[in-house]
């Protein structure tokens, strides 16, 4: 009868409403005041209905004896007072109010508005699938039952995204740039010119051939801005097809945050996780390897273990804590033997050797280079030129290089490679050492202009640059480090024993002896180096080794 809402915006409207109500009562009719619900009212009603469905009234009254004593309705009390006082709605629900709720991630929180204020709610109980996973883990580590078998379901739960956001990690943007779930993840500290980066690039290329694709390369130490010029580098060309993510772009705060990284990789669950020289990756495997190994095959690469290296090499610091969960990967047998002898007492000690790959010269290229080498060996050069290529760092044998250059002051030593300091500060003070910058592509250098390639490092795994030089028809004079003598014998290279007081004199004498060799001897020497490098490090051999190791997990050491 009184369906139309009277105008109550004026005093006259209020008086009219009272008159109508009084007349209706005298005539025996009941009045029915119809209330118009605004959108805000509708949202509040929706949240009230949610509270009525989910509040545990018995639990609420038992935990709040003042409410029970007052005989208050739990729903009304919580909506009017309890939510503002921080009283728990239900043991299985977590509630946020106000601006904090407005900023909550809608992927993990259910959002409401009540009386104009934001409210966010999400369950706190462990899903049954998580409980089942914990119980399954118990057969490997009984410590997970420490809280008590029946208490597991009521353990406090922390949201994955919340834990990551505490470290300033933009998890939404990070997962957004990973277009597909990767089957393999490689952790590298930098994208620069170096043997480690070339080794990783070859593995990425072999992963594609083996079906471990897509592959994600996670750069852990370098920012995207610092690595802006990596794409033109020829040794990193295979990485252009992989997904590249710079960890520092999403985790800018101070610290390595190996726990956050472990959570992300555990969520992605790739088939293979390979850590190459990344300290945060090695820390992650050391601390969380047991959990990660339930879903992924773990590998940690170690290349050299010389005690003369600067600092403590990762190969000494981490294998004891990573080997129980991960296979130790190395590129040479010498490191594999040291690892096996040092850590064989561990319950699990898997060690695998994966010799690095070298691109082979075609027969036409080789014939041309061999002809140029014969001409160089037959010519009379009053000033000999020696070629040296590497990063210009202390443990690359710079002291030995300087001493050899001083002993052979009439020769020229041309060195290529990046240097972060002036040569004098690095110990290269001899006037006949010429720094020619660094090479984006080693293949562009004309080795026919030089009499030999010299390698002076005191601490190496299996240096890629030597394998590349073996394809250039240039004699090799090398320190006996890493796996060099596993690939080359004395017919293919001249070896100098490092770490001796006489090393510089022996090196200088070896160069003098090389200049006395006939052209036929030089040709025979470079031919032997080419054949030996090709048989052990050719692309097809490398791809077969990668498929066997990462797809079937058969270590060969």
Automatic annotation (TrEMBL):
Keyword field: Glycosyltransferase, Transferase
Domain of life, source organism: Bacteria
KW Glycosyltransferase (keyword) present: yes
A GO molecular-function annotation: glycosyltransferase activity
Protein name per its UniProtKB record: Glycosyl transferase family 1 domain-containing protein
The species this protein was found in: Rhodopila globiformis (Rhodopseudomonas globiformis)
């Amino acid at each position: 009868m009184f369906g139309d809402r009277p105008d109550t915006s004026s005093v006259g409207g209020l008086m009219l409403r009272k008159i109508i109500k009084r007349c209706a009562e005298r005539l025996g009719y009941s009045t029915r005041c119809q209330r118009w619900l605004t959108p805000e009212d509708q949202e509040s009603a929706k949240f009230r209905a949610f509270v009525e469905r989910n509040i545990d009234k018995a639990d609420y009254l038992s935990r709040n004896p003042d409410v029970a004593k007052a005989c208050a309705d739990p729903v009304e009390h919580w909506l009017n007072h309890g939510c503002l006082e921080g009283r728990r709605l239900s043991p299985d629900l977590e509630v946020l109010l106000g601006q904090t709720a407005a900023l909550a991630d809608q992927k993990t929180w259910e959002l409401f508005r009540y009386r104009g204020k934001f409210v966010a709610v999400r369950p706190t109980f462990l899903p049954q699938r998580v409980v089942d996973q914990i119980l399954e883990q118990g057969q490997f580590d009984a410590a997970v039952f420490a809280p008590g078998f029946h208490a597991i379901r009521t353990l406090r739960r922390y949201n994955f995204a919340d834990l990551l956001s505490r470290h300033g990690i933009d998890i939404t943007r990070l997962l957004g740039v990973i277009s597909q779930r990767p089957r393999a993840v490689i952790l590298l500290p930098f994208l620069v010119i170096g043997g480690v980066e070339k080794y990783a690039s070859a593995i990425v290329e072999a992963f594609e051939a083996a079906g471990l694709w897509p592959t994600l390369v996670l750069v852990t130490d370098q920012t995207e801005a610092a690595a802006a010029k990596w794409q033109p580098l020829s040794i990193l060309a295979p990485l252009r097809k992989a997904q590249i993510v710079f960890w520092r772009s999403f985790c800018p705060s101070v610290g390595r945050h190996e726990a956050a990284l472990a959570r992300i990789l555990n969520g992605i669950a790739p088939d293979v996780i390979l850590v190459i020289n990344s300290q945060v990756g090695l820390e992650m495997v050391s601390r969380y390897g047991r959990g990660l190994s339930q879903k992924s095959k773990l590998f940690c690469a170690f290349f050299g273990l010389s005690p003369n290296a600067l600092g403590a090499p990762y190969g000494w610091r981490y294998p004891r804590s990573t080997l129980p969960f991960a296979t130790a990967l190395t590129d040479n047998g010498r490191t594999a033997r040291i690892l096996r002898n040092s850590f064989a007492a561990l319950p699990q000690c898997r060690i695998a050797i994966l010799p690095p790959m070298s691109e082979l010269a075609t027969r036409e290229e080789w014939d041309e280079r061999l002809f140029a080498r014969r001409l160089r060996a037959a010519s009379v050069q009053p000033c000999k030129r020696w070629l040296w290529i590497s990063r210009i760092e202390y443990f690359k044998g710079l002291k030995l290089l300087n001493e050899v250059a001083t002993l052979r002051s009439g020769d020229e030593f041309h060195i290529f490679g990046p240097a972060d300091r002036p040569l004098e500060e690095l110990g290269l003070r001899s006037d006949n050492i010429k720094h020619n910058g660094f090479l984006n592509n080693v293949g562009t250098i004309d080795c026919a202009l030089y009499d030999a390639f010299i390698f002076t490092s005191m601490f190496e795994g299996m240096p890629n640059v030597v394998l590349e030089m073996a394809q250039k028809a240039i004699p090799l004079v090398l320190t006996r480090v890493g796996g060099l003598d596993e690939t080359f014998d004395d017919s293919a290279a001249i070896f100098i024993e490092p770490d001796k007081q006489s090393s510089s004199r022996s090196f200088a004498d070896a160069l003098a002896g090389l200049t006395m060799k006939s052209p036929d001897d030089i040709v025979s020497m470079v031919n032997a180096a080419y054949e030996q490098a090709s048989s052990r490090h050719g692309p097809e051999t490398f791809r077969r080794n990668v498929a066997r190791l990462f797809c079937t997990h058969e270590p060969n050491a």
